[in-house]
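Field reference: sequence -> structure
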Amino acid sequence: MDNADDVHAGPSPPRALSECLMIGSLDALETPSAPRRVRLARSCYRLGALPALQMLRRLVRSDLRILAYHRVLDIDDLARFKFDLAVVSASSEQFREQLQWIGRRFHPVTFRDVIAALDGGPPLPADAMLITFDDGYDDNYRVAFPILRELGMSATFFVSTGHTETGKPYAYDWLVYMICTTSADAISIPELGVDRRLPASLVERRRIAESVLESVKRADDPTQLAVIARLEREWNLPRVPNPDCRPMTWDQLAEMQNAGMEIGSHGVHHRMLAKLGDEELDYELRASKNALDSHLSRPAEIISYPVGGADAYDARVMDATARAGYRAACSYVGGTNVRGEMSRYELNRLAVEREMDKAWFAAMVAVPEIFGYPSGPER
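Structure field:
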């Protein structure tokens, strides 16, 4: 983004919106291959109208935006990378540009600030923004952390502590990896109604993996565990550490925390909490917090529910989260958090996806209701 993007205030707010809508409609006729939301975002960005739209929105809505990332990764060879591309939120260049935009247009805050505000302390500033990461991939340390430190910004990293201990890939990632690499020519999961041939093309296998993963997540927890374990046995692909999908280590997390990053829980084994019985739910919440508290210098006060959609957490999960000692929790439901109406145990977030160019990202954070995902892609 050049300096003109930074200083150009654009037209007045009402005219900015009307011009963006008008040009977005014209773009719809000219470039039918791009989604209309993206065309409109690019129109508003080209006009320099986003600062005005953000100011207009601020007059009627005061809220906290929380960005949700998974991986920041530069993939040189897509044919070699066999894990889930959908959890690659940005390249290093995209991430740096996004942080620079946030630094210029928003007020970055931490969960300490949010919890203090929820407890009756100082209110959050206008255009407050939180940056979060789910799962705990080691590229968070290798790629994202140096960029955050370079720009003097902080983020919160939610980690699944069981994977921190073992260094093994996450179950959903391994499912995608198995489908992309198996020598089998078909996949059969009768209990989920899956019976598909596996073509040679990696691109086609990725599509099948995405569909199978969605079906697995809709199943109950025992079925999810059984399906993935059975495929590991049948295809002779037991889960082992892999450099392309490696969790962060305790030493890396400690270094990040000491440098001002916040570390929170993402459960022990990245299981969908609402699908667990009371005993297993309590274990995932308490054991992950105990591990974080024992390995790091500051206690874990925050958690992100694994997968985080409507079927991944519920009132029972939120009650258990509070009893386990957490003071706030994030879902993966798309949206912002209105000041005075925040539910501390189901904070909404805005998903960042690698398909987002500069214009779409800038528009999404400026006016999430128009340019964000209605509900973030669940991972």
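Note: The chain has three domains: 1-60, 64-167+246-356, 171-234.
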